[in-house]
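Cross-check.
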Amino acid sequence: MTYGRITANLPSHDLDGTEAFYRRLGFDTVYRGDVWMNLDRAGMEVEFFPHPDLNPLDSWFSASVRLGDIYAVQAEWLALGLATDGSALPRVGAAPFEPGGDAQRMFVTVDPDWSLWRVLDDKDAT
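Predicted model, tokenized:
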């Protein structure tokens, strides 16, 4: 099991669609009400609120996930057949960004509401 942490509260123009997408990514529904939804994956929780008027093209929402093994999660999500094209929605980054120096390795994922996820290598996560 991969350890990580999430601090996120994100909009959803359709809670049913959001729930289905994140279930594909391995998240379970912890709570679902009319105005709030909590999802969890191995102790990493993310919350969603309804935003029916959200235009994904105008979304600026984002979150970060820090994991001990970004390559395993990226391979799992790529195996789902998610698009890797930079204009597709949703999508997952096909290759981790490998910066030089002290910068963290990462890949990105964009959900159906255009919320950007930065999936960062966390060497301290075990």
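The chain has a mean pLDDT of 86. The longest strand covers residues 44-50. Passed to J.P. for a second look.
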